[in-house]
Structures are given as C-alpha cells and as structure tokens.
Write a structure and sequence with these properties.
Elements (H helix, E strand, L loop, with lengths): L20 H12 L2 H19 L7 E2 L2 E2 H22 L1 H8 L1 H6 L5 H30 L6 H28 L4 H16 L11 H7 L3 H14 L4 H26 L3
Antiparallel strand pairs: 1-2
Helix pairs in contact: 1-6, 2-3, 2-6, 3-6, 3-7, 3-8, 3-10, 4-7, 6-7, 7-10, 7-11, 10-11
Length: 261
C-alpha cells in the first residue's frame, strides 16, 4: 500500500480568501464582550463632547450651524478615530499571543484578515460617532440642519478608515500593548494640530503651515465641510494621501509578517 505525501500548495483556497460574515461576527462580538473596550468606545467620546460642548460662546454662528455643532462634529471624528485606531492595533496583542501565527497556518488570506479588522474598526468607530451625536442631541446646544448632521456623521465614519489603517500599521510594528501607548498621545497631538480642539485660525502661521501636512487636517476639513461649506482642494489631497500611506504601510508590514511562516 502506498501513501501520498501532503502538499500544502494543493490546499483549496476558500472563496474571498476566507472572508465571511461568520468571521466578521465573531471578531465583532469579541470586541463588544470586552467591557473596557466598550467603555472606551462609548464613554470617552461622549465625555469629550460634554466638556467641549459647554464652552463659552457655543451659540456663535459657523456656517449652517453654531460653534457647538462645529465642536460636536470634531469630537465625533476624534472619538471614532481613536476607537478605530485602538481596534486596528489589536493585531499587536494577537501577534504577541501567537494568534496571528495560528491564523497563518489556515487558508485565511492575509487581505481577508485585514479587511475583517478594518470592518470591525469601522463598526466600533460608528458606535463612538453615535454616542457623541446622542450626547449632542440631549444637550440641545448644537444647532445645524438634520441633513448636515447626518452627512457629517457619515463622512466621519468614512474618514475613520484612515485611522483604522493607522492602527493596523502600528499594531504590526509595535509589540503588544505598547501600540496604544503610542497611538493615544499621538492621535491627541495630531487632533490638536488638525484643528479638532482649537480652530486653526487661532494658531500662529508656522503652526498652521505644519498642521496642513498632518493626517488629521484633511479628514477634519472633509467631515466639517457640510457645516462650514468650505473644503480646500489640498485638504482632500491630504486625506487621500495619508489613507494610501497607512494602507500601504499596513499591507507592507503584513506581508513581512506572513512571510515568516
């Protein structure tokens, strides 16, 4: 009786590289079962919206709304970006625990794995955006038309992809729990330079020129465009360029990581 040696190159590749709704559901439920993650996603952005929404002069007119609406949109973006980046950076913990190595022994394609992580990050970012907007509605200080409210929230969700990619990128280059120790302060600094906490018009010219090159500037201008009716062309270029850079960085590090098995 003869035996045939197993050839791993003949292993059947599943449809879509292994991406499926079951895998997405499992990953999402795993995040939602983490109480600390849920608190971080829902409570922190809402608390920021409360603190910034009570600023003096919140009824000052800006575009089609007021300053409170301007800050609400900004805090929704910040909360979603922070949450999505934190979710994406979970790959660092999975690599440290050996889970990523186990997945590399399965037919799951790396692109399907990253796509799943991105969709989970977007889902968590959507929860952060929703919590900020609910707080804004309850406070009653933010004033803007309903269609602008919805448009800004949807744009914030789309722009969250940039920071989900950033989180995955950092998760592949930084070991373990150190990823969020870098992303947390880093995103706070980028948000400050991007004009989320303080309008860029109040900065000195030198700081303003630096801000134009930061990852948060372009997405912030896009998200606030329905409210302010202003969107410089270079802000769109900024947003697209940083998204492409972070996606390329995440794909590069992922390919280096998967090449080890």
């Amino acid at each position: 009786m003869s035996t045939t040696a197993y050839d791993p190159t003949t292993r059947r590749v599943p449809p879509l590289g292994g991406f499926n709704l079951t895998l997405l559901r499992i990953e999402l439920l795993r995040m939602l079962r983490n109480r600390r993650t849920v608190m971080f996603t829902l409570v922190l952005p809402a608390a920021l919206a409360l603190s910034f929404g009570n600023q003096k002069g919140a009824d000052q007119t800006i575009g089609s709304g007021n300053l409170a609406a301007y800050l609400l949109v900004s805090m929704a973006l910040y909360g979603a970006a922070l949450t999505a980046a934190a979710t994406g950076s979970m790959v660092a913990m999975e690599r440290a625990l050996g889970w990523s190595r186990q997945l590399r022994l399965t037919p799951l394609h790396p692109i399907a794995y990253i796509l799943t992580k991105a969709l989970v990050a977007l889902s968590m970012g959507a929860l952060a955006i929703a919590s900020v907007n609910v707080v804004g509605l309850l406070m009653g200080k933010a004033s803007m038309p309903a269609h602008i409210w919805v448009a800004s929230a949807l744009l914030a969700l789309v722009c969250t992809m940039t920071f989900a990619a950033l989180g995955v990128f950092v998760g592949y280059i930084v070991p373990g729990e150190n990823a969020m120790q870098i992303l947390g302060p880093g995103l706070a600094l980028l948000s400050f330079l991007g004009g989320l906490f303080v309008p860029l018009s109040q900065f000195a010219d030198v700081v303003r020129h630096i801000a134009w090159w930061t990852p948060m500037y372009g997405v912030a201008e896009i998200v606030r465009a329905p409210l302010t009716h202003e969107l410089p062309w270079y802000a769109v270029v900024n947003a697209i360029a940083w998204l492409a850079l972070f996606v390329a960085g995440a794909a590069w590090r992922m390919s280096k990581d998967t090449a080890r098995v």
